Amino acid sequence: MSMRTSTDSVGDAVQDRQRARTARGVGGRAAPSAARPTPPRRRRPAVALLGVLLIVGGAALAGLLALRMDSRDPVLVVATDVPAGTEITRDMLRETNVATESDLIVPSGALSSVLGTYSRVPLVEGQLLDTTMLVRTNPLSGGQRAEVGVPLVEGRVPDDLDSGDLVRVVRIGEGETPSQPLALALVIRPPVSSGGGGVLGGGNDAKGSAATLLVPLEVADAIVDAAGNNRIGMSLVDRGVAVTDSDRLRSLASAR
Predict the structure, then answer these.
(1) Which architecture does CATH list for 73-135?
(2) What is the pLDDT of residues 97-116, one digit of tens each?
(3) Contacts of 232 (CB under 8 A, 6+ apart)
(4) What are residue 170's phi and psi, to 5 degrees?
């Protein structure tokens, strides 16, 4: 009996010590942690595939641009300013390499096909030659028009006249003789410096200028006479007129 009591006392003492140790956090089963480890993130196949496609697409685009740069073709370009109605010659053109898909630009291999044509409009140095700028018919063909050189006297003509300008040509009156309209004419050669005080054939050393006009044939003599007698005046009607717009050129000599 005394042995059982002793055993129970020993067991109770052991349990008391275990409870005390547990209360102090010593021994026993550890309390579960409040924060659990984060599982590794899963890779998204769609995002990865999109990245690969972007990389491949960028490389393909860069390659295409490089190929495009290498596919430039030799074409004809205007080497100097060319007035409207001028016959195209070899020295007026040069070659350059450009990337273009236009069927109007003239390749350098087609040089022979444009020699002997005429500029439909004024051409500017550095401009790519375009088939719409050229005509095969001489502006003087048909005997209906003539080229006339006229002096440009300050105060009687507009400033900055240029090739492609449509002008109204007038014979300036004198005394009791009124002014007489002569023609609607096209400036085909822009003004160039000339000696003679603004009048062709003048006698002093002052510098003037002269231009070449495309005029109806029936008034060519009257315009030459007015120019020779220093009676020419002009007014600007329009700019950028092509030599093929011949219906805009007409005689005004009958008007009073």
Answers:
(1) Alpha-Beta Complex (3.90)
(2) 988 778 889 999 999 999 99
(3) 150, 151, 153, 156, 157, 169, 170, 171, 172, 223, 226
(4) -130, 140
